[in-house]
Specification:
Layout (H helix, E strand, L loop, with lengths): L1 E6 L12 H9 L5 E7 L13 E4 L9 H7 L1 H15 L3 E4 L3 H13 L5 E4 L4 H6 L8 H20 L2 E4 L2 H11 L5 E3 L15 H7 L6 E8 L6 H13 L4 E8 L5 H11 L6 E3 L8 H6 L3 E4 L6 H4 L5 H7 L3 E4 L3 H4 L6 E2 L3 H16 L7 H9 L3 H17 L2
Parallel strand pairs: 1-2, 1-4, 2-3, 4-5, 5-6, 6-7, 8-9, 8-11, 9-10, 11-12, 12-13
Length: 400
């Protein structure tokens, strides 16, 4: 049996919804060939997500709400506890998905001579995503903090045995940093099996008071600083002025920053509060029901923000699973599948796309191309990503 220690990117049990590591490593852990041990960083407090893995609660932590400050404040105790878990549980390989704890562990390995393979799962553009939880990434302080996190990210990419990424944009970045060294693997983000069940969105539409003629525009996910919600909100206001019966449904909410307050302000300023329904986070199993109630699923990422630019959003596949039209800003991962969705650059593009969706809905032609979409979806399941991760782990452990 191979014993894997996962150092996750966030709070494995307390995050509002399952993240990439939950989806992959709950499927890697089988108790027979693979045993997954997880370090829990208690950032969000209450543990709301279930797990089949062996989760290790850290015994002593300083409670800090800002994630980067939390890791910095607890750096020494985290490292000591991680080393203790590796020794006590006979860990064969480490997979890490954040910055400071794995960087300290890798440095400790160099000093102590600890021989254990190490995979860095680079799922965000960390210089910006980590800095964004501390300060405004466009400020002078933000530039300084990003520079520090950039150095940490590059150091990890160079030092580890392998790097895994969810999309090709991050793969290009990681390969450029590693230079001639090989060992960068794409392990895509995907969708859970329950998204393959087609839901009837009429119940949710009726509950929220949507009419047959309403064009429901939705967003599912965290409401954070890598988004450009302002352009979407302005577009909905303009579309309404031009006669479209648009409604806005937001499924998700705040993680740590105050970006939510900005969204609320823009909704008021653009006069669309009356047509906006903010659902908040819902159980992951119920997300398809809400998506099915939408006519349009949006990916309003800010292409000028590197976190968004390098993202590989699985919401693309979640929207498509329920037959919803998708409208997205032109991040690289989305452009690779531009034949499946509408790509928009500004509020005028949004309005044009919404008019096309409304026309297709009225003429009942929006179901065309479903077979092609299902073909893509079958390749984007989390269980396939878990199998890919198993292959990488096996290769590294067997090669010592």
């Amino acid at each position: 049996m191979i014993r894997v220690l996962l150092i996750p990117s966030s709070d494995y049990l307390g995050h509002p919804f399952p993240q990439r590591h939950n989806q992959i490593f709950e499927r890697v852990h089988d108790g027979k060939d693979f045993e997954v041990h997880v370090v829990r960083f208690n950032i969000f407090g209450r543990a709301g997500l279930p797990s089949r893995c062996i989760v290790h609660e850290l015994p002593i932590e300083l409670g800090v709400s800002k994630a980067p400050i939390y890791y910095l404040s607890n750096a020494v105790s985290h490292l000591q506890w991680i080393l203790k878990i590796i020794k006590r549980e006979g860990i064969d390989i480490v997979v890490a998905g954040n910055l400071l704890p794995p960087l300290l562990l890798e440095l400790c390995k160099k000093v102590s001579g600890l021989k254990i393979p190490f995979i860095f799962d680079l799922q965000d553009y960390y210089p910006t995503s980590a800095a964004g939880y501390v300060c405004n990434v466009n400020s002078l302080l933000g530039t300084t903090v990003k520079g520090i996190f950039e150095g940490m990210t590059k150091a990890l990419i160079r030092m580890v045995d392998a790097v895994t990424v969810p999309g090709f944009a991050l793969a290009i970045y990681a390969r450029a940093v590693r230079g001639a060294r090989s060992g960068v693997y794409i392990v895509p983000n995907g969708i859970s099996e329950h998204f393959f069940k087609q839901h009837d969105g009429r119940r949710v539409r009726e509950k929220l008071g949507y009419g047959e003629g309403d064009l429901v525009v939705g967003y599912v996910g965290s409401m954070e600083f890598w988004l450009d919600m302002r352009a979407l909100i302005k577009a909905l206001s303009k579309a309404r002025q031009e006669g479209l019966k648009v409604r806005l449904m937001l499924v998700g909410g705040r993680l740590q920053t105050t970006y939510v307050e900005g969204v609320l302000k823009w909704v008021e300023q653009e006069g669309i509060r009356r047509i906006t329904d903010w659902i908040g986070f819902v159980e992951h199993e119920r997300v398809p029901e809400y998506i099915a109630a939408m006519d349009v699923g949006t990916i309003p990422f800010d292409v000028k923000n590197p976190t968004a630019y390098y993202a590989a959003p699985n919401k693309l596949w979640e929207y498509l699973s329920q037959g919803v039209d998708v409208v997205s800003t032109p991040i690289p991962e989305v452009l690779a599948y531009k034949g499946l969705l509408y790509v928009v650059k500004d509020e005028n593009d949004y309005v044009t796309a919404l008019k096309e969706v409304e026309k297709a809905k009225r003429e009942r032609t929006h179901e065309q191309g479903r077979e092609k979409i299902v073909e893509h979806l079958m390749k984007r399941m989390w269980r396939a990503s878990a199998e890919k991760f198993k292959e990488i782990i096996l290769g590294l452990v067997r090669n010592g």
